[in-house]
């Protein structure tokens, strides 16, 4: 895949993706059936990567606002350890602003070509260069099979409480990028 032929665009209210198969029925259904509804009711915004020549959807990601909160931790002391790690001198809040990667998928035809990494890097870069509101972290509820991918991107588990769950709450500190 020639990465110069890839275009990133935000799905609008009247856009539709006709064909996409990442191998996961839930992720396929979202982009084919639900992404526009989520946009219309302002729950999430979805971006697609397209081949500008063929107009094929190569991958997509969906974003929403989130927070890392006291309630994400098993105890107040666990939250305080987290808070002090990142905000030793700062005011204590009950939550800190984050951006959630709601969904991220690459079409099966493009697996192994670095598209997922490209999408994560695009998300990180957009919040570094154009952070329109305070946002310190990126979060994702990662499928267990996707954990190695997110760890490679620099994400870390928020707590040990969900180690055996089908999904795991991970975070990325935007301060890690300079």
Structure description:
With 178 residues, this protein is α+β, with helices and mostly antiparallel strands. Helix content is 27%, strand content 30%. It is built from 4 helices and 7 strands. The protein has helices at residues 25-40, 76-86, 115-129, 147-152; strands at 6-10, 45-51, 57-69, 95-106, 137-143, 156-157, 167-173. The chain has a 7-stranded mixed β-sheet with strand order 1-2-3-4-5-7-6, sandwiched between helices. It is globular.
Contiguous uncertain segments of 5+ residues? none
Overall SS class: alpha+beta
Q: What is the strand tally?
A: 7
Report the total helices.
4
What general form does the structure show?
A: globular
> pLDDT average, as an integer?
91
Give the N-to-C terminal Cα separation.
Answer: 29 Å
- Rg measurement, Å: 17 Å
Strand order of the largest sheet: 1-2-3-4-5-7-6
The major beta sheet can be summarized as: 7 strands, mixed
User: Roughly how much helix do the residues carry, as a percent range?
Assistant: 25-40%
| Element-level helix/strand string | EHEEHEHEHEE
Oligomeric state, counting identical vs distinct chains: single chain
DSSP strand (E) fraction? 25-35%
